Structure formats: structure tokens, C-alpha cells
Predict the structure.
Amino acid sequence: MQEEQPSREQLLLEIASLRRELEDLKNKKADLEILLEMTTEHSDTVEAQLHQSNQQLQAEIAERQRTEEALQASQDTLQSLLTILTRDKSDLEILLETTTEHSDTVEAELHNKAEEAVRASERRLAQFLEAVPVGVFVIDASGKSYYANHTAQRILGKGIAPEDTAAQLPERYQAYVAGTHQLYPTAQQPLMLALSGCCSTVDDMEVHQADKIIPIEVWATPIFDEKGEIVYAIAAFQDITQRKQAEADRIKLINQLSQLNIAYERFVPREFLQFLKKETIVDVTLGDQVQQEMSVLFADIRDFTALSEKMTPSDNFKFINAFLSRMEPAITDNHGFIDKYIGDGIMALFSGGADDAIKAAIAMLHNLAEYNQHRVQAGYFPIQIGIGINTGSLMLGTVGGKTRMQGTVISDAVNLAARIEGLTKEYGVSLLISHQTFLQLQNSSDYFIRIIDRVKIKGKSEEVTVYEVFDGDVGELKDAKLSAKTIFEKALLLYKNQKFSDAAQLFQDCLYYNPMDKVAKIYLERCQFSSPTFSLSGD
């Protein structure tokens, strides 16, 4: 078949179309050339922008890849979880279905097991409470008796009465305050305190039964439920008869030991043990000793031998004890202690200073004045005492043998104190002190003191100066000595300077104020003999 040829008009149209296409192509070529030229001009910028864009694109691609990987991982995880959940759901559905089918059976079984467990616990608790060696008593929240174990019923003498309230318990069980016939106060009962939420313990309660009294110790505490409310109060108690008896025995033993210790202190002064650094007399051994600086006081009743001859032995003891019991407080009140009684005499020691010894001696003389008033009122003659005090170093310790020993002090200071006490008879004064004691006084002007003499004591190589302290003399005698004190001192100075005639005149003046001043009389006699070498001994 022959192909049909295009017509002339068609060809012309085609040619015109081709011309327009050609013209368009030329225009596009021109545009491309312009574009090419512009592109060439900005190629570096474009290249840089393209490079940057390429990098950003690469980064975005990488980030997207990571995001996609993360999303994929999350998806995988979610899928796994979904799978697990699906499986669990399936299992739960199966379990729910199975449980639902057997719920009644399971509930009943669990209930039975719970009841059995409770019963077993109750049995074990009951066995435990019955086995414990203490009484157990329980009341409920309303105060009604709930439970008492066997031990509780034995101690209380009877079982519980459920209708009893806590307030009735003391009367029902005859619970009293220990040592009294007073029913135990309701408000102080441990069970009542437990119902108010308090834990308490008492040991002052007794249960009175027909033939015996049982002291008990009670502990009580509240019991709370899961809501914190008190549902019970429980008390545990025990018979403490043996413990109370042991306590009574212990107290009795302590009292006996205390009395024994006090009795020992009457024979061995507590201060004596303290100086030896001993706790008790049991710790003291033969030969224990310590060196101390002390003031030693000796006191003695004048003419006691003559007095005692007029008394029966029994009256002698009464008289001595009456005298000594009045002297002792004066010594102890001034920080001294009595080392020993020597017949009617006293030997006392003072470690705190010479002032304590002198104050004690003055107090003794004051006590003696009161005692004499009592004696005179009773028809007896007044008595006089002499007191001598010396201060020095001494050895305090124990002497004796294996079967008999005693505490004592050994020193020349002790012997000198005894000698000075003896001089009070010679000079007719009540209280003499040594020069060593005078020097130890904190303030000698606090006392009425006058120098008496320098004497040669038997057994001593050196003379000793002695002073009279006349604060303890009765009022008129003390006033007279005080009035003549200056005259006496001037007279004594004249006597020492061997101006015997002038001294004698002044001593005579002293006797004008105090005719009983034996010291002035002695010096007056010495002046008359015109010899200062006249001496006295303390034998």
C-alpha cells in the first residue's frame, strides 16, 4: 500500500512551525549563553555553596540514618514488648479464667488455712503463757478481765471473773500497798495505766491471802491493733518474796556493818584511818605510820583523885562520862578528833592548824562553865580543868603485837603538850600553849594572850616559852586579867631586866586587879627572892 504524501499547505505549516522552533532555540541558546556566563562568573561561590549544601545534606542523611536506626530499634523493642504483653495477656486471661472457675474453692481453702494458723498460734501462745514462770493477766479495752494464766491464778489465789472491771481488781484479789492495809489505788494500777497508753512497773504491791502475804512486782503495757487503738492491756507479775527478803537481809546487814563501823570509829577515829589512807579498820596493819604536822591538846581534871575518892566506882564512871561527853563536841566542832581518853584526861589532835586547837580549848572551858552551873545547882562542887597545847611534827601509826594493837601518836611534840598541861596546875591557869603553837596562829590578836614564862621542861634541853590564853576564863576573871595585862607585861619586862623592886611593885598592882592571879604571885615571890633563876617543872 502506498503511503499518502503531505500537501503543500501542510508542508508550509510545518516549515513555519520549524522556523518558530528554530527561533525559540535561538532564544534559548542566547539565554543559555547568558546563564552560562553568569554561572561561570559565580562558579566559585556556587561551588562553595554546593559544597556546604552537600555537607549539610550528608549530615542530614547521616542523622536521618541514625534516627531511622533508632526508630527501628524502638520499633523492635516495642514489638518485643508487645509480644510479651500479648503473651502475658494471654496467660492472664487463661489464669483469670482458671481462677474464676476455682475462686470459691481457693477462698474456702485459704480461709480454712488461716483459721488453722490462728488456732495453732493461739495454742502456741497459750502454751507459752502457761509455761512462763510469771503471772500474766489481760484485760480488754473496756477494762473487763480477759485472761489469766496458771501462775497468775496461783499468785492471786483465784481465777478471773469476766464481769470484773479493772477498778475492782484490787479488792477482788486483795492487792494492797506494800506494808499497809490500804487497797492499791485504782489510778495507780499498772493495768489502768496501760489502758491509758502508759507502760509502768511497780514493786510496792502485795497480795494478801488467808495465810500469807505475797509481795509482787508488776509490769504492764498496752496492746494496740493495726489502727493504733488499744485493744488490750497486759500485765506480767511475779512473786518477789525471796527478793524482798534478800533486800531486807541486805539492809539489815548494811545497818549492822554501819553500826559496827560506827562502833569501830569510837575506838579508832575515822580521821586516824584517813591519815593512814585506809578505807576501813580491816585494812590497818601493825606498823602503819605517817608523819604529820599537828597541834596536840591535852586536858585533865584538876584534883580528880580527890574527887573520885568521894564517889563510888559507878558514880565515877557517870561523872567521867558526863564530863567527857561535854568536852567532845568542842573538839569535833573545831575539826579535831580525840586520839584517846586517859582516865579523866583527853588527848586530841588537830591537823588543820593551831587556831582550831585553841578554839576547841576555849569552847571546852565554856562548856565546863555551863557544866559547873549544872553541878552547883545539883549540889556538887564545880570542877576545874587544865589544857595544854603544843604544835609540831609527830608520827601517827599503829603499835602493839599480833593479838593486840592500837593507834597512837609518838613525838616530842606530844610529850611537850602533856608537860604544858601539867604546868597549868603550877601557874593556876586553865589554858597554856607553847611558843610553837603561838607562832602558828593566823592572828594572835584574835585571842586574849599573855606570855607566862620560859621554863625548863623535864627531858628537854632547851627552855620553852609558854603563853596563857584566857578567853575561856569566866567573865570577872577574864576582865581582871585583861585590865592588868599591860601592867603585867611591864612588870615581866622589868623582871627580865632584873629590876626586881620595880617589877615587884607592878606585880603587886596586878594582884590589886586580880588577887587570885597565881602567876603574878609567883613572880612577886621571885622578886622577893631577887632571883630570876627560879624555875618550875611540868612533872
Confidence is low (pLDDT under 50) at residues 532-539.
